[in-house]
Amino acid sequence: MRLTIERMRTLVLATGGLLVLALAAFLVLARWKSHFILREIPKHLGADIQQEANGVTYTQSHGGHTLFKIHASKVVQLKKGGRAILHDVQIELYGDDGKRVDRIAGNEFEYDQKDGIAKAAGPVEITLMRPVEGPAGAPKVVPDRTSRTTALANAARTASEGEIHVKTSGLVFDQKSGLATTSERVEFDITQGNGSSVGATFDSDKGELILDHAVELDVHRGPERVLLRARHAEFERDNLLCHMDGAEGSFREGQVTAGHADILFRPDGSAASLEAKEGLSLTSATAAHIAAPRGNLDFGERNQPRHGRLEGGATLDSIRNGRHVHGAAPSADLAFDSQGLLQHAHLERGVTMASDETALAQNGETLKVSRDWRSPLADVAFRNVRKGQVELASVTGSGGVVISTQSQRGNGPVLPSRMSADQVTAEFGHQQVLTSAVGNGHASMEQTTSSGAKQTTTGNRIEAILASDWAQAANRAPGSAGARGGEQIQSATVEGNVVLTQQPAPKAGSVPQPPLRATAGRAVYEGAGEWVHLLANPRVDSGALQLTADKLDVSQNSGDAFAHGNVKATWTGSAPNAHAPGAGVTPGIAMGGQGPAHVIAAEAQLHQATGEATFLGHARLWQQANSISAPVIVLNRIRQTLVAHSANGSDPVRVVMLSAGGLKGGKGGVSSTPDAPGANHGNPSVVRVRGGDLKYSEAERKAVLRGGSAGNVIAETGAATVTSKEVELLLLPPGNHAGTDGGAAQVDRVTATGQVMVSSQGRRGTGDRLVYSSETDEYVLTGTPANPPTMTDPTKGTVSGASLIFNSRDDSVSIEGGGRKTSTETVAPK
User: Fold this and answer.
1) pLDDT for 787-805, tens place per residue?
2) What burial class does residue 421 get, using C-beta atoms within 10 Å of its C-beta: 0-12 exposed, 13-18 middle, 19+ buried?
3) Closest CA to 431 of 391, 388, 398
4) Whole-model pTM above 0.70?
């Protein structure tokens, strides 16, 4: 969008020059009325009848100042009609200050004394001296012939340095009305060029000059040529005001037009102001176009524009390098630098700007971006790129700015984005490419990623840095941030009260995922990896999980989040499915409990597509009285599972849970006698298990631990320690279970398999499988026919059978096998 406001100045200067030419020519005729009446010439010759005289010279002065001098080689007084004819007329006119000498020459002038009309028969040539500093000795008085000759010589030499020549014919002057007219062609010849018009009228009484039509001026400013035209022009001499209709100017780098223009001049001939009506239009060679129904310009003493205003609906259009820009505002104030180049524009009362850009990638794929700017106010700054041309440097909008963008790669979907703030400043680089945008106050940025996810970021301030090479942005891979749907954003920073919301793209046949919401004091967008880095107390809420950390990284494309340092999370349960009738929040999946589960870890990963939350580095999870600690803990919201594992045997997975039977103090067969063997005095019984990995399923209410890197699984109940290859914990089903005696998160059964070894109160048993029931507090140890279970008692020795049943309530051991049932009661030493 390159503007050539300098050309508007050229139009004003050249037009003023043309009008001064015509005015000067007709001022000669006006002086005929005021100071020189042709019928008096014969009286000075001493005759009132027809006669001829050769070499007549007439000089008229006033107040010691020479007004004009007329010389005719021959004067003929006609007897009939009271007419006089002058031949080979030379007229010299002096300016009021004696510094200007103008000349007019014609082969023949005819004067009708009765009607007071003078006609030039044939062509008339006028030589005008432009208003420049004249000789100090310009003639004011005529003391002697030598001084008068010297003064005239100096005036002639000064005039020849800037002479203006005018040619016309058919000139008619009406002494009674003071009108001088011609319907013939008027030609002007000046140092910078030449001009013409057809028909002219000058009213010497009113000081008005009218150029009828076809006004043209062809001038040169250095190597540049400027062609000016006007349909009609009028000049008020006393007010120094020019009115032009259908004015237009053409030059090498553009064109300017005005339906009607009023130009006010200073006494020295410089333009003071220009007011355009009925449409003002400026077009540059770079396809930049400015238009408004009304406009005005103020000029400095050197004819350079200083201030301007466009009203009635100003528009700006530019097409360059595949980029089309259109702007509009009801009014615009313009400011120019000392050289007369456009420097600043203030737009108000509702500003709109739209741009369309198209780039071609190396693979032939097109990249299209359309932007729309709306703000109550806007300030536009321009910079000088070359002589007489400026280009857009920045745009600052205030009062609430909204920038909407639509981008499309090839035949892909149209992806929208939106930026808004109380104030936005957009910076433009070479060739008016948008390089950055800064929004302050209630700043917001909305966008749709290439995966279809919708993301909104708000804060106190947003600063976005865009790619300086538009074609390079088009050549980026579709998966990169700079190429997502055509956005050129390389990086962006959001400061103060940052809130990020991301809604994953819906997938056919799947339940809609809950939105991800994050808050922070600062957010940094990284274009290369499509990441948002949240800093300063960041927090993420994915519907079922709230998480805080020192730093959070969120993928703009997938919605995945990665937390680093001092991770703290709370799992509240599955988010409700808003589309399912009667849907509500389901219980948490941590370990079957009803309340929230809490997690701490060094790092965490949240995957939106899979619904997984992975906690790394000394991770610990607890829910009510149950807890899990492991190097890695994974929660899956969609599958309702929990997985923990360890790659180091010295740092195993540890599980601590309450047993359903441990809360039945004094009931259900547990001895109420303090000294009874196995009495727990009503304290909760805790199940502790450690192993290499763990998997829990909420649907099955079952947790399975395997030896893995730890080799074996060790389970500790209230009365026994069990070592095996695998341990299965079965929780009570959801429900009240008769009050606090049977909570949903309590272990109902423990099953150990694979090389089982159990130790309890001095006894030691081995077998292939052991089942512990919290309801009965019984341990059932079984084996295989080839390797039956055995138990060794320090006092009773070793027993074996198909199954061994140990009851922790009364320390009894039952042996079953061979179709017989044997019961043994053993009391171990304290």
Assistant:
1) 899 988 887 788 888 888 8
2) buried
3) 391
4) no
